[in-house]
Amino acid sequence: MKVAVIGATHAGVFAAKQTKAEHPDAQIDVFEKNHTVSFLSCGIALWIGDHVSSPSKMFYESPESLTEQGITMHMGTEVTEADLAAKHLVYKDLASGKETAADYDKIVITTGSKAIKPNLPGIYSDKVFDSKNWDNANELKEATSDIKSAIVIGAGYIGAELAEQLSVTGKKVTLIDGLDRVLAKNTSEDFSSRFQEEYKKHGVELELNQMVSSFEDTENGVKVTTDKGTYEADIAILGIGFLPNTGLFKGQVDMLKNGAIETNEYMETSVPDVFAAGDAATVFYNPTEKYDYIPLATNAVRQGILVGKNIENKSVAYQGTQATSAVELYDLAYAATGLTKESAAMKGVDAESVTISEDYRPDFMLSTTEVQASLTWEKGTGRIVGGAFMSKHDISQAANLVSLAIENKMTIDQLSMTDFFFQPNFGQPINYVSSVAMAAVAKASK
């Protein structure tokens, strides 16, 4: 069996590794236009803030390691033509310009995503930085070492983390977003308002509910103009979001309108023996029970593994995703899974939510910490569709617990009566996950 894997960030790496594990005799060619694989881009902000022990550890695999595993790596190589029905590729060595054609039995599309970069005046200035890949990370690390100010555009997870790390390292930061609050697509207002308070305490200027219209180089930096004002800083950083990097395959496989490749539960596309995974593909989103586009490394890894397991025999179905994620800003941790009430409404789910606050362990302990917990459920059925937690205590596993509840279609009534242990070092007689579920049951019964 001859397999081509196009792209080697997360989905591509795991698809190649799992395919080799399942089929040791398979010839696996991996095509990657960069010279690194498996870069953990979520660490860019932490590296800028000097919270990374070594940048080399921001990779969990290398081309050399994959080669040793029997996988043929074509680094610095771009696939320029793809006939998916015929399983025919043309690829170019970017250093020499040499083009080669080859035919395959199976093709795996793991081309990932591309940063959204609107065609605005001045946006391609060398003072306007992207925050997507290893090259961007190196450029940002060098650029931010001696600046005094920065404008961050986009207040999703990436922009929020960049703004936070720049502010705690003494930079004057302006955070701009088109929506009316930070992390508006990731959190409910209860949670984003707490983050906004922290930004203001740390001197970050929040310029929200406005759209950038242009960039202009100045003598000492860059000027960013929006529909509501003008802001100046030494540099500007884009963190607007991502789109599937699938233009090469347009018209050959079924896609969503944004270019995300649709797959079945075995990660196979509408073309037989052509698979897709990661940021290039759709996910089955369990809270809505529909396919969606949610670019996350966790989705990419699991989908890549499934490609390897199903590439010859369709044996392991995709369980779907809850899009569980987390962020920590100014020592305030936020972990969430599934939908908020606001995002549920946008996606056509009739939902209700409840939020509570309580200490995570008994007050007779010498110390304890408040936890804010939220649960979202579908009206009528009581099916859990989302949960969120915020605290300076580690609440990350609570989001994983609710993620499991969503995947298994649990109701708020079931979660409210689920058995959790009690021990004063670790929690209350009624765990805060149980408490928020009980609050949900009480609210739903009214």
From TrEMBL:
Residues 1-304 form the FAD/NAD(P)-binding domain. Keywords: FAD, Flavoprotein, Oxidation, Oxidoreductase, Redox-active center. Signal peptide: none annotated. GO terms for molecular function: oxidoreductase activity. It comes from the Bacteria. Residues 330-427 form the Pyridine nucleotide-disulphide oxidoreductase dimerisation domain. InterPro entries: FAD-bd_OxRdtase, FAD/NAD-bd_sf, FAD/NAD-binding_dom, FAD/NAD-linked_Rdtase_dimer_sf, Pyr_nucl-diS_OxRdtase_dimer. Its cofactor is FAD. Belongs to the class-III pyridine nucleotide-disulfide oxidoreductase family. This is NADPH-dependent 2,4-dienoyl-CoA reductase, sulfur reductase. It comes from Fructobacillus durionis.
